[in-house]
Amino acid sequence: MTTPGRPEPPERSEREVRFQRAERRREKIYRDIQRDRAGNHRIPTWVLATLLALILAGWACLIITS
After folding, report:
1. Cα 21 vs. chain centroid, distance in angstroms?
2. Where are the stretches annotated Disordered (predicted)?
């Protein structure tokens, strides 16, 4: 469906579609990395690491003592 006065867009090849999809994906990953590097985390990383260590230690303690 074309509008009057506007040329029909050229047909894209599969290679162009794949390339554009890869470029969009690459840009999204880049933005995510930049956002993560900026910090602004609600819970500090050290708190999450400590929580994980406590959970693993408790789990190991249950296995050893049972």
Report:
1. 15
2. 1-20
